[in-house]
Amino acid sequence: MRILIISDIHANLEGMEACLAAAPAHELVLNLGDIVGYGASPNEVTERARKLGRHFVRGNHDKACTGVSGVDGFNPVAGLAALWTMKELTPENLEFLKALPQGPAKVEGLENVQLVHGSPLDEDEYIIVQRDAYEPLAKAAAAITFFGHTHIQGGFSASPDGQWGTIRPIYKSKDKLETFELQLAAGTKYLLNPGSTGQPRDGDPRAAFLAYDTEKSAITFHRVPYDIKAAQKRIFDAKLPDRLALRLADGR
Ligand code: ZN
């Protein structure tokens, strides 16, 4: 089966559309949460995401933007965007986001895979560096855990002979459509992050996602240029904090 994994769309319609347009043929879409928050197209991306499939886990912004959690842990800019999003969402979209399941989630027919937003041990935890990955990998209930939350494309691995590794895709540019292949090794456990579709923070402003071919045991990380100026204009027009628009150009 060929699967798309997307995460952290953050109400960026232009980023999302560019990723879907660049995506290879696939039979399934898995969504790792933070569909909304930060960006200015919460209804459009929620409706688009709902049409893509039924496999989701909720993100911290999905919770904050729908009242499942408060905005207390958020910085002022994120909090403001969450409150704006809550007002902007249609009742139907709000109910959908509110009902998103907590990870880890399993996918029928994919016994070796689980989905989480942050960590398999805590949905709101960030796995940023290799040290953060030790416990989640050691305790992971599946060979492959797809995670998001950090907006950093790549991941971590633990091989049966005790070798730990960090996976960071290498690209030639920061403005062209590019892919990076990773062949999965049998018996090795992986934590894999598709990166953020709507607000990359790994210094690469291109929208990010990954494709997983189960028959080939192959992961293809993608980076996709998109109309950043259009996404920024929507944020300015919505009178959301400027910072949310400006950071898109830097991928920070
Ligand atoms: Zn996020």
TrEMBL record:
One GO cellular component term noted in the UniProt record for this chain: cytoplasm
All copies of domain Calcineurin-like phosphoesterase, residue ranges: 1-215
Entry GO MF terms: phosphatase activity
Pfam families: Metallophos_2
Gene3D superfamilies: 3.60.21.10
Annotated family: Belongs to the metallophosphoesterase superfamily. YfcE family.
Record-given protein name: Metallophosphoesterase family protein
